[in-house]
Every structure is written in structure tokens, then in C-alpha cells.
Design goal:
The structure holds three protein chains of three kinds.
Chain A (H helix, E strand, L loop, with lengths): L2 H22 L3 H21 L3 H25 L15 H21 L13 H12 L1 H22 L2 E2 L2 E2 L36
Antiparallel strand pairs in A: 1-2
Chain B lengths: L5 H31 L5 H16 L11 H20 L15 H21 L4 H32 L4 H6 L6 H4 L3 H12 L23 H26 L10 H22 L5 H26 L2
Helix pairs in contact in B: 1-2, 1-9, 1-10, 2-9, 3-4, 3-9, 4-5, 5-8, 5-11, 8-9, 9-10
Chain C lengths: L1 H11 L2 E7 L4 H6 L6 E3 L8 E5 L7 H10 L5 E5 L12 E3 L3 H17 L43 E3 L5 E3 L1 E5 L10 E8 L2 E9 L16 H18 L3 H15 L5 H14 L2 H4 L11 H18 L4 E2 L7 H8 L4 H10 L9 E2 L2
Parallel strand pairs in C: 1-2, 1-3, 3-4, 4-5
Antiparallel strand pairs in C: 6-7, 8-9, 9-10, 11-12
Helix pairs in contact in C: 1-4, 5-6, 5-9, 5-11, 6-7, 7-9
Classes of the chains: A mainly alpha, B mainly alpha, C alpha/beta.
Chain lengths: 204, 309, 358
């Protein structure tokens, strides 16, 4: 067993263990960062497989993603910083069945399939090859997806902004009825007279 | 890609960070004495960090009602470890790097992003209001400059045609990046001030929150946190020197000396800025970062791209 | 002896002090920032010595004892210029003299607890939790299901509408009366959503008392300048400029002994303060009657310079909204940072009374 093998097992077990802990912990902040720990270990395994760029980029991307996720989850939920313990699983029975089936399926593939054994030459220019693939052969797909996502984000921000070029974003908005096909109740409106809206002046 | 034997590499990183942290403490003492108008002797400045350590060691740690103990203890260790990881990809002389990997700037960026997690968790772990507010505030501000760092580092990688920091230094043999890409260094220093939360960007352990993220730290815990912060400052100074100031290139003096001088110079500027620039308001800085700094980082990338055509 | 060697090394360091000051001694405490032998800490957790200065209101006794217990052990208390009417607190040293005497006493108290930790002062309050939470609720954490209760002893944050029409977490907390960045004797009950203050209740417990930090006729230019410099030292500290705060405080002590070089130093200090960009960064913050925090800083700086260079007794600064509701109205809807900057810049009746140029 070489050092790389030992490292692989350490990272693999750490990834599985922290992945398991995500569902056993009782706080959103801990769950987010345990998930991050799991991803970091997967990233380390990718580096061991000589996919250096993909591995380190995974570390980088997942870190920022999990920070944003934790921040938004806590912001929107009635749970002070995720400090109040809460059940982190929904539909546990269905999830358990799905988990077992998926693990069994993937395990079966891993055991049964005869994978090609083609070790990467450490001197191979894997990063250059990846760059050529993304910005050469698949550039059209890659770029159109990228620009579409960016445009979507900009539009979402514009649509959700409280103040736009046509005035107050909530002007004229009415609350949906509580039951399907029910009547609109003016007291549910966030804006307007008699609404539950809580307005403060000088918001900056 | 150069790699030192593991024992030498660990010793090198520990030595550079220890000397660096001590140096930062001494310079901080000297600059604050000059700004305050106090007389301070060289011996006194050199002894100041040791005395501060002694004060910390003689204090007993305090805990809060229901903290996350593991995270609270691990946060300074993680922050210092990330400083060491970031420093590991920065070559200190030709061929002398712990590991000058091909993805150097991506590793540096990942260490920087993970540092945000460490700082946030350090504020979250004590389960106390002021550190918590400071931790969340920091994340909000940090997300606004996280992209800057990646853009300026990618711009520096373009003329080098490599993401290895060693190759980026080599590419500056003729002309340093600070001249070739004038926007790069100032933007990178803003990121450095942000990730080490000092001076104008100290939105975490700030006095307006009575110590903020560190408000519940005492004794050794506070010392460890301050030392980790100084270590990160050294990692950023070394990276600034290598990526923008030509690294070891320079006349007469040996390569390693140039690198050390440039690193110390950047660190001194950052520590000095702490005492002479007022803290920015987090809300206004975030707006400024997205509307002014981010477009400037794009411009930096465009300049680098056009120059390499 | 390794331990005594460590103790001696620690005793040579600037003593970390957390100061709790009554309105009458607050200025004198700010002046201590100019002394390199001590370091005023922003939180009791960073301090070794608790300095209790001036008249502490009887109603603040509980808060004072809590601050005392927040200092890590070994700790010492030094009482300075106490009128004997406030809440009693056991002290290692009681000083009634000058700033120099109190700094020496603080240093001696620190050295004494380092040399013999048994001399350090024990907790004043029983070590018990303010809210009963252990073992309560479904997970024994004190919460009630997904909402309500006091999970881990902290009141549950519930969502509320924010200024952008989103429903986000709200945090309720009490700041003061001894929070380092706030003016003395001020207590704020706030509802925070992220950084934004949604609701503020102000409690100004402090009655107007004579400031014996500036003895003699407060109408003299020197007394006015000194009072302005005390304010400046604290305000610079809050804006993250501790070294400059040291310079301002040192200048205040020079004025106190009638140093003739003080007028030139005041000019230079005002230029240094302007160069930090603090005036620019406070622009638009906490506007009252058309003057924002930046304008108030500028007026106060001008007043200090005028008093020292031209010997002009400055006119009093326009006081802040006198009723608590109006003051709270000024803070609602702004970020916590801006709220603190606003409070620091204001002239709060019964809290501190510096002056500005005529």
C-alpha cells in the first residue's frame, strides 16, 4: 500500500463520515459545513487522481457555495443562526429507501463493471486538455449556458429589487387568496392601507 | 513544479510564519507608537510581542453558556493552517517552494475562500450575540470581494501562460505585473485587508461591536486568533510580492533576500494602513465593491488579455 | 522559577484594562488612552483589571457585577474617584488621585495578581444561567419545537418583514449600559435584522452630573478643549483608530497641565484625523436638522483647534433629540455600525457635554 492509497482511504472515509453527519446533526450551519467537509475530501481525492484543476476548483467553488447556502438558510428561517436543534431530514423513510437503492446500484456498478485501467501520466498536461475541451470543442455549449445563467441572475435581481425604474416594486401587488379559487383579502396585502406591512423610513 | 522534501518544507513554512508573525507584531507596535506620538525604544518594540504572549498565557480561558467548543477551538487552528497552505504554493526563491503546483493560484483562492468559513465559524461558535453579528456581517462583506481576488490572479496568470505562482514570477523577469497590470496589486491588497480583517476592512473584530467576533475570546484563545491573523497577513504579503512585485527578481541581492524584503514591505504597508485609515461602513463598502471594484477587476482582466494578444 | 519569570514578563506589558465609568469620570477614563502603560480593552474578556471610575448608578449594580464576572481569572478591581454612593464592589485598590496615580495602581494590581493568583478576586454572582433551558423541550435545548423558547439560553429569533418585503430572522438584544462603543449610561434594546436595526428603545439612565475630569470653570478654552479631546479619543477608538485615539488622549493630558505646545499639536491632530478619511466615511450618517455625523465631527474638531490656538470658548453643540423616542427614531432603519457612529457623534444631554466653535 503506497502513501497515495493511504491518503485515498483517509479522504474517502472522512468524506463518507462527514456526509453521514450532515443528516445526524441538528443545526443548519453545522449541516452546511459538514457537507462542505465531505466535498473537500472528494476534492482531495480528485487531486490524488491527478485531476488537479478539477480537485482544487471543487474546493474553491464548494466553499463559496456552502457559505452562501448557510447564510441564506439562516436568514430565511426562524432559527437563530441554526443554533436551535431541528430535524434535518424530511420524509425519512422514503429517503432511507432511496439511499439504500442508490448505494446498492452504484456499489453493484463499482464491483461488477470491469473499469479500464489507464493511469494518468503525472507529466500529462491535464489542465491544458481541460481548457481546450471547454473553450475549444464545447465552447458554444459552455458559453451559451454561461451567458444564459448570468442573464437569468441579472433579471432575477432586477425583478426582486424593491425600487426599480418604474417606481416601487410592490406597487399594485395583491396577496393571493388563501384557498384555491378563494377571494382576495385586502388585509393580507403587504402594501397599501390596512396591510400588515411594517414600513420603516430612511432605509439606508 | 518543484517540491521540497516534506521535513524541510514543513520547517520552512513554520519558520517563515513564526518570523513573520513576530515581525508583524513588532511593526504594529512601532507604527502605533509613531501615530500615537509615543516614544518607543527598539528593545521595547522587540519585547512587546513576548510580553503580549506572557499576558495571554497568564489569563485563564473563559467559556460561554453553550458554545460549539470544537469549532471554537478549531477556528484559529484552521485559519492558521489555511495561511500555511496558502504560503505553501508561493515560491520563496527559484525552485524553493513547498509545492509550486500547476494550480497555484486556484489553491491560493481556495485557501482564501476557506478562511472566510473559519472566520465565520469563529464568530458563530461562542453562541453569543456580538460575535454572531460580526460573523454574519463578515460573510456579507467577504462575498463582495471574493471575486476580485480570483480575477486579478487570473489576469496575472495570462502573461505567464500558467497558473503556477513560480511561472508567474518567471514571467515578470522583464516587467513586473505591478506596472504591466496596474490595477492588480491595489485590488489584491484590498482583498488581503479583507481576509485578514484589518484597518479599513476590520468589519469582524471591530470596536463598534466591542471586539465583535473575538469579543468572547480570552487569554490563549485570543492570542491564537491574533497570531493566525498575522500568519494570513504574511501569506498574502508573500503572494503579493510573488504575483505583482516580481518575486525574487531584483539586482545585486540574492533572490531569497529580495523576496523577503518585498514580503516585509507589503506586510508593513498593510499593518500601517490599519492605523491611518478609518474603518469603512460595511453597507457602503459592499455597494462600492460590487459597483466599482468588480468592474475594475474586469478591466484588469481585459488589460491583461489585450496585452497578451 | 519559570512561573515568576513569566509573571514578570507579563507585568511589563501594557496592562489590559476594561473601564466602567460613570458620566462624571468618563472623560478622565478616555484620557487614559494616552498612557502607553495601560491598554483599554474593548471587551472585559480581553482585560485583566477592571477599572470602576466615578459615580455608577445604583440601578447599574447588577450590570457592573456581571461585567466583573466576565473578566477572565485572575482578575483585579481598581476603584477610582468613587463618591461612595454607588453599588459596592470589592476592590484591590482604591485611588482618589490623578490619572498617573491610577495607572500606577492598575499596574501594581496586575503585577500583584500575577505574582500571587490567590490575591485575585472571586466571582460576585453565582455561576448560573439567566434563563432555565437545560433539559427543557424536545431536545433538552430549551426550545419549543421549531420555534419559540430559549434554545441554549438565547431567545428564539423569529422571522419578521424586512425593508425589501422579505421575511427574515430578527434578533433581540440589549446593548449597554457598559458597552465600550456607546456613550456612558446608555442602554439600547434593539431588534436587529442582519445588520439593520428594526426597533430601538433607548434608556438614558444618567442624570446630569458635574464632570470632575475638567475641574475649574468649564467656560475656559482649555477645559472646553480637553472635553472635546476626551470625546475625540473615544470616537476615534470606536472608528478603529486606536493609535490616533492615543494621540488625542495624550494631547488632552498636555492641555490639563497647561503645555504651551498643545496648540500646534491640535492643528496636526485635526489634519491627521481628516487624512484617515473618517469624515468622508461618516458623510450622510445620522443626519439631524441637516447636519450629519461628518458635520458634527468637523464642528468638534474645529472647536478643539479654536479653543487651543485662538483661545476661543466654543459655543455648545446643538444637542441631540432630547426625548428618547426621537433618538430611537434616528436609529431605526440604519445599520448597527451607522447607529453606533451616530450615537458617538451626537451631543447626548445628560451623557456628555462637549462644545463646538462659535
Amino acid at each position: 500500500m503506497t502513501g497515495v492509497d493511504v491518503a485515498f482511504w483517509v479522504f474517502a472515509l472522512a468524506a463518507v463520515w462527514s456526509g453521514y453527519r450532515v443528516f445526524r446533526t441538528d443545526s443548519m450551519v453545522r449541516a452546511s459545513f459538514l457537507l462542505l467537509a465531505s466535498f473537500l475530501n472528494v476534492g482531495a481525492i480528485l487531486v490524488l487522481l491527478l485531476a488537479e484543476y478539477l480537485g482544487t476548483a471543487l474546493l474553491f467553488m464548494m466553499t463559496v457555495e456552502m457559505v452562501v447556502m448557510a447564510l441564506f438558510m439562516v436568514m430565511f428561517m426562524m432559527n437563530p443562526a441554526g443554533l436551535n436543534p431541528m430535524e434535518m431530514v424530511h420524509q425519512p423513510r422514503l429517503a432511507a429507501v432511496a439511499g439504500v437503492v442508490t448505494t446498492a446500484g452504484l456499489g453493484l456498478v463499482a464491483v461488477v463493471v470491469d473499469f479500464p485501467d489507464a493511469p494518468v501520466d503525472p507529466a500529462a498536461e491535464t489542465i491544458r486538455a481541460l481548457g481546450t475541451e471547454l473553450l475549444g470543442g464545447s465552447m458554444l455549449v459552455f458559453e451559451s449556458a454561461g451567458v444564459t445563467l448570468l442573464a437569468t441572475m441579472v433579471c432575477a435581481v432586477i425583478l426582486s429589487a424593491a425600487r426599480g425604474r418604474y417606481g416601487d416594486g410592490t406597487a399594485g401587488s395583491v396577496a393571493p387568496p388563501l384557498e384555491p379559487g378563494g377571494d382576495h383579502r385586502p388585509e393580507d396585502d403587504l402594501v397599501g392601507d390596512g396591510g400588515g406591512g411594517h414600513h420603516h423610513h430612511g432605509g439606508h | 513544479m518543484t517540491t521540497l522534501p516534506p521535513v524541510v518544507a514543513v520547517a520552512l513554512v513554520v519558520a517563515v510564519l513564526t518570523v513573520g508573525v513576530y515581525g508583524v507584531a513588532v511593526v504594529d507596535r512601532l507604527v502605533s507608537a509613531v501615530v500615537a506620538g509615543w516614544m518607543v525604544s527598539a528593545g521595547e518594540a522587540l519585547a512587546a510581542p513576548l510580553r503580549a504572549v506572557a499576558v495571554a498565557v497568564t489569563r485563564q480561558p473563559v467559556t460561554t453558556e453553550a458554545p460549539d467548543r470544537i469549532l471554537w477551538v478549531l477556528a484559529p487552528a484552521a485559519y492558521a493552517g489555511l495561511a500555511a497552505a496558502a504560503l505553501a504554493v508561493v515560491p520563496l526563491a527559484p525552485g524553493v517552494a513547498v509545492t509550486d503546483v500547476r494550480t497555484g493560484i486556484v489553491v491560493f483562492g481556495a485557501a482564501e475562500a476557506l478562511a472566510i468559513v473559519a472566520i465565520f465559524l469563529h464568530g458563530w461558535a461562542p453562541n453569543a450575540p456580538l460575535p454572531l453579528i460580526a460573523g454574519y456581517r463578515f460573510v456579507g462583506v467577504a462575498l463582495s470581494y471574493e471575486l476580485l481576488s480570483m480575477f486579478v490572479l487570473i489576469a496575472a496568470a495570462i502573461p505567464a501562460e500558467s497558473m503556477s505562482i513560480g511561472a508567474i514570477v518567471e514571467s515578470q523577469a522583464g516587467l513586473w505585473n505591478v506596472i504591466r497590470q496596474p490595477l492588480g496589486l491595489p485590488l489584491f491588497l484590498i482583498v488581503a485587508a479583507g481576509v485578514t480583517f484589518l484597518g479599513p476592512l476590520d468589519v469582524v473584530d471591530s470596536t463598534d461591536l466591542a471586539g465583535g467576533g473575538a469579543a468572547e475570546d480570552s487569554g490563549m484563545q485570543h492570542l491564537a486568533w491574533s497570531a493566525a491573523r498575522a500568519a494570513m497577513l504574511i501569506a498574502f504579503s508573500a503572494a503579493s510580492a510573488a504575483v505583482f512585485l516580481g518575486g525574487w527578481h531584483g539586482p545585486v541581492l540574492p533572490a531569497a533576500v529580495w523576496m523577503a524584503l518585498k514580503t516585509a514591505g507589503v506586510a508593513t504597508v498593510l499593518v500601517g494602513a490599519r492605523h491611518v485609515i478609518a474603518r469603512v461602513s460595511p453597507e457602503r463598502f459592499v455597494r462600492w465593491a460590487w459597483t466599482v471594484l468588480l468592474p475594475l477587476a474586469f478591466l484588469d482582466l481585459v488589460i491583461a488579455g489585450m496585452a497578451s494578444l | 522559577m519559570a512561573v515568576s519569570w513569566l509573571a514578570r514578563l507579563a507585568a511589563d506589558a501594557p496592562t489590559p484594562v476594561f473601564a466602567v465609568a460613570g458620566v462624571d469620570a468618563w472623560g478622565a477614563v478616555q484620557e487614559l488612552r494616552g498612557d502607553p502603560r495601560i491598554r483599554l480593552a474593548a471587551t472585559p474578556r480581553h482585560a485583566a483589571v477592571l477599572l470602576v471610575a466615578g459615580t455608577i448608578l445604583a440601578g447599574h449594580g447588577e450590570a457592573l457585577r456581571r461585567v466583573h464576572d466576565q473578566l477572565p481569572r485572575p482578575r483585579a478591581v481598581v476603584v477610582w474617584r468613587a463618591p461612595g454612593t454607588g453599588p459596592a464592589i470589592p476592590a484591590l485598590a482604591v485611588v482618589d488621585g490623578s490619572a498617573d496615580e491610577v495607572v500606577s495602581a492598575v499596574g501594581r494590581a496586575h503585577a500583584s495578581i500575577l505574582a500571587d493568583p490567590t490575591r485575585a478576586q472571586a466571582d460576585l454572582l453565582p455561576d448560573e444561567e439567566p434563563t432555565e433551558w437545560r433539559g427543557v423541550g424536545p431536545f433538552g435545548q430549551g426550545g419549543e419545537g421549531m420555534m419559540g423558547g430559549t434554545p441554549y439560553g438565547r431567545p428564539m429569533a423569529m422571522t419578521g418583514d424586512d425593508r425589501d418585503g422579505l421575511a427574515l430572522d430578527q434578533l433581540h438584544l440589549t446593548l449597554g449600559p457598559f458597552l465600550d462603543p456607546l456613550p456612558p449610561g446608555l442602554t439600547l434594546d434593539v431588534t436587529l435584522q442582519g445588520e439593520v436595526l428594526q426597533d430601538v428603545a433607548v434608556d438614558r439612565a444618567a442624570p446630569p452630573v458635574v464632570d470632575h475630569a475638567a475641574p475649574g470653570d468649564p467656560a475656559t478654552p482649555a477645559a472646553a478643549a480637553r472635553r472635546g479631546l476626551h470625546w475625540l479619543a473615544h470616537a476615534l477608538h470606536v472608528e478603529g483608530l486606536d493609535a490616533l485615539a492615543g494621540r488625542a488622549a495624550h494631547l488632552a493630558s498636555q492641555v490639563a497641565v497647561g503645555d504651551v505646545a498643545a496648540d500646534r499639536s491640535a492643528d496636526r491632530l485635526a489634519r491627521l484625523v481628516t487624512a484617515t478619511g473618517v469624515l468622508r466615511s461618516l458623510r450622510g450618517v445620522g443626519a439631524v436638522d441637516g447636519a450629519d455625523a461628518s458635520d458634527r465631527w468637523r464642528q468638534r474638531l474645529a472647536a478643539i483647534v479654536a479653543a487651543l490656538r485662538d483661545g476661543v470658548v466654543p459655543r455648545a453643540l446643538e444637542p441631540a433629540p432630547s426625548d428618547d423616542a426621537a433618538l430611537a427614531g434616528l436609529l431605526v432603519g440604519v445599520t448597527l455600525t451607522d447607529a453606533v457612529s451616530t450615537l458617538v457623534s451626537l451631543e447626548l444631554p445628560g451623557v456628555l457635554r462637549p462644545a463646538v466653535a462659535a
